[in-house]
Every structure is written in C-alpha cells, then in structure tokens.
Amino acid sequence: MSAGERPSAAIVAGAPFELLIGLFALTNEPRSERTWPPRSLDAASDRVRAAVERLGPRSGELWLHLLGTALEAPAGIDAAAFVERLAELDAHELRRHLLGVHVPAWREVVGVDTLERAAAGDRSAQTRLLADERYYGGEAAAALRVILPLSAATTKRRVLGALRAFVEDVFGPQEASVMRTLEHEASARRPLARTSSAEQLVAAVVPGYVYVPEPELPHVVLVPHLAARPWMLLCQHKSTRLICYAVQPASGRPDQDLRRRALELGRALGDAQRLRILERLRNRPANLSELAAEAGVAKSTAHHHLAHLRTAGLVEVRGNARSYTYSLRSEGLAESRLLLGRLLAPLSESD
User: Fold this and answer.
1) Which of 222, 249, 276 is the last residue of a domain?
2) Comparing C-alpha atoms, which of 143, 90, 139, 147 is closest to residue 118?
3) Residue 248's pLDDT band (cuts 50, 70, 90)
4) Distance (Å, rounded) from C-alpha 172 to C-alpha 78?
5) H or E, element range at 242
6) Disulfide engineering: 246 pairs with which of 2, 229, 233, 282, CB 3.0-4.6 Å?
7) What pLDDT is attached to residue 4?
8) Strand partners for 243
9) Backbone angles phi, psi at 243, to 5 degrees
C-alpha cells in the first residue's frame, strides 16, 4: 500500500470461517461463550474428542491459521466441500499455512527462513518457534507441540480427520441456521462497506476496536462469527487483515436486548481480575502483557477478560500487529449509567 492509499474493506460470511472458528472455540482456554459448539472438548462426541486430541487438546490457534484457506475458497462453499478442498491441498503447503508462513507478522517475528525450515521438518527451527514468546501470540507450545514432530502427510491426515468429524457430528447439523444468521449480518453491513473507509467500517461494526491501517496489508476483511463470542479474532493472510467479530443476534424486542446488554455489563464487572484490569486502566492505557501482570493471569486469560470488558463497552483496543493498546472508553461510564437507568426505571416508578 503506497503512501496516501487507504486499505480496501469488505464483509464476508462463510461456512469455512465459522467451521474453523468453531474448532478454535472448542480447543481454546479460557472457554468462550457458546452458541453452537459444545461447551468443552469433554462435551463433544467421542469421535470428535479423539480426532481433536490427536492434534493436541489446546490446538486452538492452529485452526485460525487456516482462515487464509477459507478466504481463498469459492464463495458460498459449504463446510463439507471446504474440507474436501483442503484434502486436495499439498500436505507441505498445509503445514506452511499452519506454521504461519503466509502471516506477515510471524514472518517478521521469527523470519521466513525459520518458518520454512520448521515446516520442512528442521528440529532446530521448530525448537526456536516453540521458544519465541511472540510467535503464535504466545500460544505456540500449546498449539503446535504435538504436530511439529509429525510428517507433513501425518499432519494433514490428522487435520482432515478432526475437520471431518467436527463437520459431521457438530457443525453440519446446525450449519444452515447458523449461516442464515451470519449471512443476514453480512448483507445488512455491506452497504456501509461500500461507502466507508476501512477505519470507519471497523469502528461501526466492531465496537471497542480502533483499527490502525497497516501498509503491508492493503485489504481488510471483516468476518462475522457466532462460534466464539465475545472474542474478536485478529488474523493475517498474505496481504489481508482478517477481523473476525462476534455477532449478537437481535431478539427483535427492545426489552430483551436491554436485558442482554445489562447481563454483558454485569458479567464484565462480576470478576475480581476484570476489576483489577479496569483499575489499572483508570490510571493510563496499557498493553496486554502489562494488564496480564496486573491481574496475575496468563496473557490468554487477560485477553479473555478484555473481550468481556470490550463487549460491555467499558474498554477499547487500538492498534495493529505492531502494537495493541487498551484504554477505558470515555463514553463507557455514561453509557453504563444510562443502561442501568433504563433497566431499573420501571421498578423505581412502581415503588
């Protein structure tokens, strides 16, 4: 992207995205809110659990590294057809996707040569990847330790086995209804995408995220999901920034939507670690590592807490892969007071 150019923006809903995000949710800690995936791997069918555990029970981030293959799949393809499309992909190329060869941030963090050598089976390169605290968002050991020693062919067989089991036992029976919701969301947002800059579109569609354009990523694709609410998932593939944002289906009834928002606020405030994070942000903005240290939790857990705080409108995150900074939303306190006032006004009037 040359100086003065702005990134293009689009909104895309697709079964392959939702499938992969569903597997991320199933195998990620701490647990996200659930709509259609099982609440835990233990709650999945024996076949799904066995297939997933052959890749590691905490393989969550691994599935997000296949979102680039979903981006390149034909529009409208269903989950089962997408899996068979992956079956045609060269086994070594699949390994390259899983290790992040096509992710600009990882290419910069650990180097293209290290990624390529690790994908080809070089043990010293693999050891370096597992030891880097920035690579894979700090989740490399959990997500990759099982598959790195495997051959490319074995890795592919295990990935396809988990995907096929998950489609047949979990996602497939619910795919039509889930995709109706997601396609409705995408259709409703597309007119805005045609008239807005990428920054404006992200601000409108993903509350609490201030996107800062990245010169190396001239394309921005927003992907609505139901599988891993309330998480916002920020991914890269070649020249595209993928922003997977959680959709809250509208009930069509203002009173129910009001209660839902109040529950989100209550959930955000109902945890001592989240309160410590808010108290820390009251003083000044901070990054994820600083907030994790303040709350005394792992970065993945702090990220989960921040997702709830952002969903409740209390916190915003600004930046891109170079740096993300969290701060209190200046409007959050006023909005929370207004929300509680609207919720409790009928009770006050009747007392």
Assistant:
1) 249
2) 147
3) confident
4) 9
5) strand 240-246
6) 229
7) 56
8) 222, 234
9) -120, 105
